[in-house]
Amino acid sequence: MKLNLALAQIATKLGDVESNLEKHLHYIEEAKKQKADLLVFPELSLTGYVLQDLVASVAHKPTEDDAVFTHLLKASHDLDLVVGFVDEDSRHRFYIASAYLSGGKVLHVHHKVYLPTYGLFDEGRFFAWGDSIRSFDTRFGRVGMLICEDFWHASPPYLLWLDGADIMLFSSASPGRGLNDREKLESARWVERVSKAYASMFTSFVAHCNRVGFEDGLLFWGGATVNDPNGELLVQGPYFEEALTFAELDLNQLRRTRARLPLLRDERTALVQKELNRILSRG
Amino acid sequence: MVDLTINTEVATQILTGFIKSEVTRVGYSRAVINLSGGLDSALSLALAVEALGSENVFALRLPYRTSSADSLEHAQLLIDKYDIPSETMDISDMVDPLINRDPDISKVRRGNILARMRMIAMYDKSEVFKGLPIGTSNKTEILLGYSTLWGDMASAINPIGDLYKTQVRQLSRALGIPAPIIDKPPSADLWAGQTDEEELGFTYEQVDQLLYLLVDHRYSPQECIEEGFDEKFVNAVITRVRRNQFKRMMPPIAKLSNRTIGYDFLYLRDWGT
To answer: What value of ipTM does the predicted structure carry?
Structure first.
């Protein structure tokens, strides 16, 4: 089975959801023309990233009667979508969120569980922490979604893997930093290294879609990637500019790789649990 | 030896992208820049021209009667090289009435007056040319506070403020800034014979290496001394960075209400764009 995956590394207008929605619909149209089955947008793709006091005013609920999601849910009849937004729960907590939309339905919403609040990041000041990591079923098999800092920690991809995800969809708003004499920024090299590592260790597909554009002096570096279950890079989008990057995922590769390299079969989850219990009970 | 080498292609791509994005998103397409004849403004100019096109960057030459002839010539070299619109205004008549009010005026006060007059001229040209004022302060001088508040520090956007002077030199070479501008001793040229390194008491190469460890790599003062930097030098630089923090901030506002600008009224400049 083949999955035609598209990654839209877009620039956004900070706090202008209407304008960002228009851009989403444009890229959805373009991806549809090129026969994409699934189109992934970056973290906070509907709102922009350094929201600070804009958070409450850009929040939406992923429901049919929402002014923004009604358009996206309609579009999801043609192809599956992953969009980034600010989710407001019924008790008015705000989350950095990704929604997976398919056939007019919301299949899953992930709330970012790790909010970087150090260095140039201040997410914990403005957002609530997500508290679950779940894989979910799609028409392409079982999928897991993580947002940026989530996959800087090893446990979220590991949990998704154990929960059945064969396709991991990572989205980011990663500011470029760490310029030295190398060809790539330190932040880009780090994310590319771990994406490849997760694909290799979990013998899974790992796609990463990072946004582009500036917000004040921060430049988001783009460079979307897809790695296959062998840890081989299938495609890479350009740095620093908007692009729609396509990858054809041969889902049969999962079987071939895992027949050769049965890391999933041999994973000793009971041992992990036992040792975790011991480590955590030490107090 | 601490290595501050950067990939100049990536730096150019990011900095020209920054200028283009931050100028155009607020509805402008042009920029103005004060061209002193020194290296920092030369680099900011080169980046602005690459980002916006030569017809969209206006250069001002603003000599004072004591300014060195070299400064004016070097600025002209750049105006010719990039074929940009420009204007030369002698600011002596504008600043002397203020300077002459006090026969005992210090060099520093005079220098500050020149720097602030040049700021006024640039912002006035900004309105006429419909261009955003481009900053020319590098990371070394911002950290050391070696600049005039509301003078040469004033700008709408600053493309070179995260580059140490050493890196400004490297990037300038890569972008083809004429050698006489790169090779001459850095000077604010606020009085005859002034040079940065004599006034600061150390070379940019020395201080850049120290700042790179202290700031970029979060070395403790003790670790810097263990790396071979002189203890007095380390302490002097740290004191200088701390004492000049005020130049790197908007003036603090005394909090009275529940929501105060600067503390809990938080939006990026790019809000809504």
So the answer is: 0.93
